[in-house]
Amino acid sequence: PQWVQAFGVVPGLVIMPHFDRVAHFVGQELFRAIIASAPEKTVLVGVDEDTALVRESPDAAWRVSGRQTVSVFDTDGARTMYQAGAAVLLDM
Fold first, then answer.
1. Residue 19 pLDDT
2. Strand, helix or coil at 25?
3. Phi first, then psi: what are they for 81, rounded to 5°?
4. For the CA atoms of the chain, what is the radius of gyration?
């Protein structure tokens, strides 16, 4: 995997959109390689379709909005899933 600079709206946050669909065809080996190659001090977040990760202000908690889930991955690839309405803790 190759990483490129994006918008930089939230430095250190990597969003994988449509995660529920992408996760099915990427494969475990490639997904592990993506996680292993992530730049230092980044947080990888998978956001399912029809779902958003929102924050109302810089001091507010992140929250899941929509009908599916948000997944946060640690550096070992462990996944924590959050349902709609849940506060999401991002170690950034």
1. 95
2. helix
3. -105, 140
4. 13
Buried b (16+ CB within 10 A) or exposed e, 4-39: eeeeeebeebbebeebeeebeeeeeeebeebbeebe
Rounded Cα distance between 48 and 37, Å, is 22
* Terminal-to-terminal C-alpha distance of the chain: 22
Q: E-strand spans in 18-83?
A: 43-47, 51-54, 62-66, 70-73, 79-82
Q: Which two tokens stand for residue 4?
A: 């490129």
Q: Pick left, alpha or beta for residue 2 (phi over 0 → left; psi -120 to 50 → alpha; otherwise beta).
A: beta
pTM: 0.90
Residue positions counted in the chain: 92
